[in-house]
Write a structure and sequence with these properties.
Elements lengths: L1 H12 L6 E4 L2 E4 L3 H15 L12 H5 L5 E3 L5 E3 L19 E2 L3 H21 L51 E4 L8 E4 L7 H10 L4 E4 L4 E2 L2 E2 L12 E4 L2 E10 L3 E10 L8 E8 L12 H13 L9 E4 L5 H19 L1 E2 L1 H9 L9 H18 L19 E4 L2 E4 L23
Parallel strand pairs: 7-15, 8-14, 8-15
Antiparallel strand pairs: 1-2, 3-4, 5-16, 6-7, 9-10, 11-12, 12-13, 13-14, 17-18
Helix pairs in contact: 4-9, 7-8, 7-9
Membrane topology: Single-pass type I membrane protein
Subcellular location: Membrane
GO molecular function, one term: protein tyrosine phosphatase activity
C-alpha cells in the first residue's frame, strides 16, 4: 500500500497522474469536468489571462532530465519513443533524410521549437554518431600529426584531399581537408582547417592543384586571444607574397560591414609557363567568439553574395571553406548554401539529410545543436523574404503575447515562429575544441 502511494505521488509530480487525461496539450481531470472548468475560467478572469493563452510550463526534459518523450498508450501504459513530425515528407528513410516542403517549413520549425527545442535536440542527437569509426590512417601517421590543428578533428581516408606527392617524401600528400558534397556536385566544396604556420604552403598547393575558384574564410586570425587561423593571404602592407612555389598578389579588396571580399592573383613559380589565376577570397568577420551570429540577415546575405559572385568554373572545381577546425562554421555555411538552392529549385529543404551526408565525409560537420538550430533560423529568414505566401499565419490579438517577429500581409497578422538561440555557457565556441575531445 505504501509503495502504491509513493508511485502515485511520483506520477503526480511528473504530471502523469493516471487520474488525468490529456486533451490538446491541456491536462483535464476525468471527473467533475464542468465544475473544474468553471473554476479555471474564474481563475483566468481574475488573472487577466486571455482566453486560450496558457503560461509556458517546463518541458518534460527540464522537469525530469529525460532525453525522450513519454507517450501514453490507449491502455494507459507509457511508451518511450521518438516521433517524426508530420511535416516531414513521407516515403523517405528518416534515418538519413527528412525533407520538408517549403510550404510546411514554418510549421515544421514551430513544432521542432516547442518545449525548449525538444525535437531539435532529439533530431540533432540522431546525427551525433553519423560517420564515426571511419578510418583516418593518413591523418594519424606520426609524420602528419603535427599538421592537425586539433587531434580529434581528422579527415577520413576516403574523402581527404590528397596533394601531389613531393619527391617521395612521406606525408607530403597530406592536408587536413575533406571533399564535401554541395547542391551541384559531389565535390563542390573542400572543408579545411584554418592553416597553421607549418601548413600554410600546403594550403596554397591544394588551392592551385584543385584549381579552386574561391576561398571562404569564416574566422578571424585571432579570437578571444586564441589563434584560430594563420594569416595566409597578402595585405595592403605587402601586396605580393611567395608561399613556397605559389606567388599570391592582392589585386583588390572591398570592405563591407561584416565581411571582406578580396581578389587574389596566383602564379606558380615552379611552372615554366604559368598562366595567372584569379581566386576570390570571401572573408566573413562577424561570427562571434561563442555560439552563432546574433541574427540571420548578415550570414544569409553573405551566402547569397558568395553564390552570386562565385567565378564560373566549367569543370566544377571545388571551393575551399574553412574556419578553424573546418567543421562547425564551415558545415553551417555549406548547409545553408545547399539548402537555399534546394528551396529555390525543389521547393523543399532537408537540413537533416544535408548534415547527415556531410558527416559521412568529415567528422562533426555542424558542430553543435546551436548551429543546427541557427540553420533553420536562417532558412526561416529566407522563407519570410522570398516566399511570404508560404509562411504559416495565425491570428493573435496582441503580438506581445508570443514575442515573435512578424509583418503585415493582406490585413492579417502573419508571424514566423521565433527560434530560441541557446545562451548556455556549456556551449563551447564554434571551434574551441579541446584536444581531449569535444
Amino acid at each position: 500500500m505504501i509503495m502504491a502511494e509513493r508511485a502515485a505521488d511520483c506520477l503526480a509530480k511528473l504530471g502523469l497522474d493516471s487520474q488525468h487525461s490529456t486533451t490538446n496539450g491541456v491536462t483535464v481531470p476525468d471527473g467533475n469536468t464542468n465544475n473544474n472548468n468553471n473554476n479555471n475560467n474564474s481563475a483566468n478572469a481574475s488573472l487577466n489571462v486571455p482566453f486560450g493563452h496558457h503560461r509556458r510550463s517546463r518541458s518534460l526534459r527540464e522537469r525530469t532530465g529525460a532525453d525522450q518523450r513519454l507517450e501514453r498508450l490507449p491502455g494507459g501504459a507509457l511508451l518511450t519513443q521518438k516521433v517524426i513530425p508530420h511535416t516531414v515528407i513521407a516515403g523517405f528513410n528518416t534515418s538519413i533524410s527528412r525533407p520538408v516542403r517549403v510550404a510546411d517549413f514554418a510549421e515544421h520549425v514551430r513544432i521542432m521549437s516547442a518545449d525548449s527545442d525538444f525535437r531539435f535536440s532529439e533530431e540533432y542527437d540522431d546525427l551525433k554518431l553519423v560517420g564515426n569509426g571511419q578510418p583516418c590512417i593518413a591523418a594519424d601517421l606520426t609524420v602528419n600529426r603535427a599538421k592537425n590543428r586539433f587531434t580529434n578533428i581528422l579527415p577520413y581516408d576516403h574523402s581527404r584531399v590528397k596533394l601531389m606527392p613531393a619527391d617521395d617524401e612521406e606525408g607530403s600528400d597530406y592536408l587536413n581537408a575533406s571533399y564535401i558534397p554541395g547542391y551541384n556536385s559531389r565535390r563542390e566544396f573542400i572543408a579545411a582547417q584554418g592553416p597553421l604556420p607549418s601548413t600554410r604552403d600546403h594550403f596554397w598547393r591544394a588551392v592551385w592543384e584543385q584549381q579552386c575558384p574561391a576561398i571562404v574564410a569564416l574566422t578571424k586570425c585571432v579570437e578571444k586571444g586564441r589563434d584560430k587561423c594563420h594569416q595566409y593571404w597578402p595585405d595592403s602592407e605587402q601586396l605580393t607574397v611567395l608561399y613556397a612555389d605559389i606567388e599570391v598578389t592582392l589585386m583588390n579588396e572591398t570592405v563591407y560591414e561584416e565581411f571582406i571580399i578580396r581578389e587574389l592573383q596566383l602564379t606558380n613559380q615552379r611552372e615554366s609557363v604559368s598562366t595567372p589565376r584569379t581566386v576570390t577570397h570571401f572573408h566573413y568577420m562577424a561570427w562571434p567568439d561563442f555560439g552563432v551570429p546574433d541574427h540571420a540577415v548578415g550570414i544569409v546575405h553573405f551566402v547569397r553574395l558568395f553564390r552570386r559572385r562565385l567565378p564560373p568554373s566549367p569543370a566544377n572545381r571545388p571551393t575551399v571553406v574553412h574556419c578553424s577546425a573546418g567543421v562547425g562554421r564551415s558545415g553551417t555555411f555549406i548547409a545553408l548554401d545547399r539548402s537555399i538552392q534546394a528551396m529555390a529549385n525543389e521547393k523543399q529543404v532537408d537540413v537533416f539529410g544535408v548534415v547527415h551526408e556531410m558527416r559521412m565525409e568529415r567528422c562533426h560537420m555542424v558542430q553543435n545543436e546551436q548551429q543546427y538550430i541557427f540553420i533553420h533560423q536562417c532558412l526561416l529568414h529566407v522563407l519570410e523574404t522570398d516566399y511570404p505566401h508560404f509562411v504559416k499565419s495565425f491570428r493573435t490579438p496582441d503580438a506581445t503575447l508570443n514575442n515573435t517577429p512578424g509583418f503585415q500581409m493582406q490585413s492579417e497578422w502573419v508571424s514566423v515562429p521565433r527560434i530560441e538561440v541557446h545562451q548556455n555557457p556549456a556551449f563551447e565556441d564554434d571551434e574551441g575544441i579541446a584536444e581531449s575531445g569535444l
